[in-house]
Structure prediction request, 278 residues.
Amino acid sequence: MTILKSYLVLMLSLLVWQYTLHAQDAKPPREIVQAATRAELDADTNDHTRWRYRDAKKDGTDTVSIVVETDYGTVNRVIMRNGRPLTEAEAKAEDERVQRFIHDPEKLAKQKRDAVQDGKNAEELLRMLPEAFTWKLVSEDAQRYTLHFDPNPSFSPPNMQGRVLGAMAGTLVVDKAQKRIETISGKLTQDITIGWGLFGRLHEGGTFRVERREVAPGLWQIVETHVHIEGKALFFKTIGEQQDEVQSEFTQVPPGTTLEQAAEMTKPGYVPANGAQK
Prediction:
């Protein structure tokens, strides 16, 4: 055997050896998703932190709000609309709206019911993730896994949420160290019909993307939401979504903060206890 042939055989052997080691160390894609799902569900159960943040939203209107979460409810104050600060008259009307809200038991109760339902929906969708799709590991580095998903033909969706979820294809990015979901994005691969199309339809090609980041050690929040799904349901409001939302400037809210204190914390120019103007 010539020196060149010996060298080629050696290199080929090393490549096979490295591939075998990688294959042994690599986790099956579904196990990565299952671990991430468990981490998210555990965090949802154990994380009771409350936050103050800036919320820029485009969903038919263009607003910037300051949001403050408390154990008693969440206070939201609009500070900009259509790219400009509120006028004095608009700011006064917004303050009156905030005051009415924090002293209205019915509205607070409705907000709580809606939040509970949103939490249940999110948990249900998370639990569906591993089985709703076929998974493929696209790449990995020291920090994260990137996976691609396609609809799983054997998945039987239990409800309309599951039907929409199960018709998506897209990408999931998982933080390796904490097993937390950084990014999930998808695209509807087909029309979704309601009542054989008689009552509504969501159109193929609709997209969504959700970005999550660690905003404090071990604490993760959604920082971007982009949903562009079109469709209407007969006798009901539009069931599609057109929304772009960016949340930033997260600071923790002290435990026991009241709604009245939260209302003050939403005002432009609010100065927290540490003296840093927000």
In short: The longest strand covers residues 241-252. The radius of gyration is 24 Å.
